[in-house]
Amino acid sequence: MENRETMPITYEQLKQDMIDSGRPYDFDLVDRAYALAEAAHNGQRRRSGEPYICHPLNVARILVELGMDSESIAAALMHDVAEDTAVTIDEIRQKFGAQVALLVDGVTKLTQIKFSNVEDRQAENLRKMLLAMSQDVRVMIIKLCDRLHNMRTGDAWPEQKRRDKALETMEVYAPIAHRLGISNIKEELEDRSLRYLDPVGYEHIRQLLDKRGAEFLDSVCDTIGRHLRENGIGNATIRHRVKSIYGIYRKMYMQGKTFEEIYDVYAVRIIVDTVAECYTALGFIHDMYHPLPNRFKDYISTPKPNGYQSLHTTVIGREAIPFEVQIRTWDMDRMAEYGIAAHWKYKAGISTSNEKLEERLAWVRQLLESQRSSADATDLLSDIKSDLLPEEVFAFTPRGDVINLPAGATVIDFAYAIHSAVGNRMIGAKVNNRIVPIEHKVSTGEIIEIITGPENRGPSRDWLNIVKTSEAKNKIRNWFKKERREENIAEGKDALEREMRRNMMTIPPEKSEDFLSALARRNHCNTVEEMYAAIGYGGLQMARILPKLKDEYNRLKATEAEPKPITVDIKKPHSSGGVVVEGIDNCPIKFAKCCSPLPGDEIIGFVTRGFGVSIHKKDCANVRESLRHPENRERWVRARWAEDVREDYKATLELFCMDRANLVSDVALALGDMRVPIYSLDARSAEQGRARMTVTIGINNTEHLNNVVARLRKVKDVMGVTRN
User: For 599, which DSSP code?
Assistant: First the structure.
């Protein structure tokens, strides 16, 4: 299978696959699409060296395996021509019609628009794709197949690009595949991403999954099949599978379980004709094997949001090996394997008015609708990462309605999932008839009653820090946006002024209006008041504003003449603490914590009142700001490093890492190997399996520091190192 997945194919092989599928493909349409793509990509090669046309051919093959229609195959063959060649979407529309053009345009990245950073580009491309997907879900199916083939051939990418693509796949595309119910693509995307993100962990688990598992499952399947036939279910189909590597990785490394504590590594799937036979087969399984407590899940009566239906139970066989049994009908199995793609694979076509399909895509429209009030496209990325997590919980209203939420969601999220009016009026909640705190996290099976107050009651701003779902966050923000405009403006103005004071940004009164107007435009606001209001109700996050704020401030200051420090003539230099301060002999010195200068940095001194001279880096932001005030200029003096410079200076480094066991010890060991003293070390976990580490060390000079930073970057799972 691996060779078939990665080796180049020809168009003749693709057509043979289409013929073998038995589906009524429009070969004339596909032939014309291939001819255009081949001509457009002529002379282009992939990074691996093979002709570029091999990529769209392989993407089209994956779509054939999913059972997609002729328009999807044609669009897959041309999916890169508008982005990488001279062919335009209008030309495709004229030759192939509006539907094919929509599919190609939907997966085409925005190349004509300039973005300030990679994250903005990623967010806008994703927004464009989701918008096209809301009109035709085939856009996303093609994109998933495109990403899958890229991940299959990702070894040709540079290492950093592999990691970036793998992380994006894990955080965005695998969750979308899960939401669409295409489990095969979802699992392969996760496994291949893990191989690039943590190759050691990937290989460890791969070795644990030895061939004995297949032998064990073959024996179990034979036993179950024989027992079901003896009891009147002779038409059952028995299959087995081994859990995906990433599925095991998530439980071992993220939930702290051992391999032996994972009970669903091995699974047996029983496929029958009717729902009644599903429950009958379940009874026979529990008679044959000992079921584990609290391991039964009925997804037939309560389907997952992506349409998945099945009975799950975990049992222990005579070999004392636990395994999962999945029982479902043929229709359920098709939906589990192919998700939304099953609409095309097992039907001649699909109507745009298909109610089930519309219901399955409601989350896309909800996500886009909630994003309309956001001034920052990058909010879409965080919403996807929080809303499309594979882990989900199911809770009930007192009337028995099922509400599904991402794992970690609170009762506030539950309230807003019912209706915005319920969430806005919420004053408390009962879980299984017991009062719970407002930050209570919802668990599967809980019956939750929301206690509401008067109609004029609104949510609390603190809830924005508690809720998990983007739906709840945006409904809270919209309430404050509509009901508390004046309050929002005042709060937003105060928040921005505090941030400017914290970063020592001073704007002359005569330039303040132009500065704030420019900042508002960069944050997609028409007026300064609109920007203040957006900050106040949470539509604009300060973390998003800060880079643009600093950029505008630097632009403003660049137009002003850079003042020069006052120099003092000296007769003879004297060193204090490894620093020579011109004009001042034997004075006490201290090194400023704001910039932590090291030998090799250009420095300058500030004569303090009562504490000697404070040494700063010349490019320190506090230096530039202080020099703009005439009363401070005479207190700045020249300074330089002495020849007898000390050998120990403190430097603080920030490490951005992928979280794992023994990470701290590996960093400490690397520093120990270089004989670098460690004065303090603080490590903390972050979201999405990340970690941050702050370490203060003894350094001789900037050259020594650069060597240490280069060594730390080589430590496994250290993504970046910066000097504070």
Answer: B
Indicate whether 347 pLDDT > 70.
Answer: no
Q: Phi and psi (nearest 5°) for 648?
A: -130, 110
Catalytic residue among 83, 90, 358, 513: 83
Cα separation of the two ends of the chain = 49
Helices 702-713 and 663-673: crossing angle in degrees, nearest 10, is 140
Q: Kindly state the tokens that stand for 524.
A: 């997609």
pLDDT one-digit tens code per residue, 516-555: 888 888 777 778 888 888 787 777 777 777 778 888 888 7
The token pair at 357 is: 């399909």
pLDDT tens sequence across 250-261: 888 777 778 777
Torsion of CA 78, 81, 83, 85, to 10 degrees: 180
Are the C-beta atoms of 154 and 188 separated by less than 8 Å?
Answer: no
Residue 310's alpha-carbon distances to 242, 278, 405, 559, in angstroms, are 17, 9, 19, 67
What totals of helices (H) and strands (E) does the chain contain, helices first?
33, 21
Residue 186 near residue 151, CB atoms below 8 Å: no
**Is the pLDDT reported for residue 1 higher than 90?**
no
Q: Which amino acid is at 646?
A: R
| pLDDT tens-digit readout, 618-644 | 888 888 888 888 777 778 888 888 765
Is 2 a known active-site residue?
no
SS (H, E, C) 56-111: HHHHHHHHHHHCCCHHHHHHHHCCCHHHHCCCCHHHHHHHHCHHHHHHHHHCCCCC
Question: Does 413 have pLDDT greater than 60?
Answer: yes
Strands 613-617 and 589-591: parallel
Show the domains of the chain with their CATH numbers: 2-204 (1.10.3210.10), 207-345 (3.30.460.10), 391-482 (3.10.20.30), 484-558 (no CATH), 575-641 (no CATH), 649-723 (3.30.70.260)
Q: What sign has the CA pseudo-torsion 66, 69, 73, 75?
A: negative
CA distances from 165 to 61, 349, 370, 381, 565 (A): 22, 33, 26, 14, 48
Among the options 5, 84, 529, 551, which is catalytic?
A: 84
432, 380 Cβ separation under 8 angstroms: no
Does an H or E element contain 404, and which?
A: strand 402-406
**Going along 142-261, which residue ranges are E strands?**
237-242
The CA distances from residue 79 to 31, 180, 186, in Å, are 15, 21, 21
Q: Looking at residues 681-699, what average pLDDT do you find? A: 84
pTM as predicted: 0.57
Q: Is 210 a catalytic residue?
A: no
**Mean pLDDT, rounded, for 21-39:** 90
Q: Which long-range contacts (CB under 8 A, 24 or more apart) does 705-709 make?
A: 705/598, 705/651, 707/674, 708/653, 708/671, 708/674, 708/676, 709/653
Pair 240, 218: CB distance under 8 Å: yes
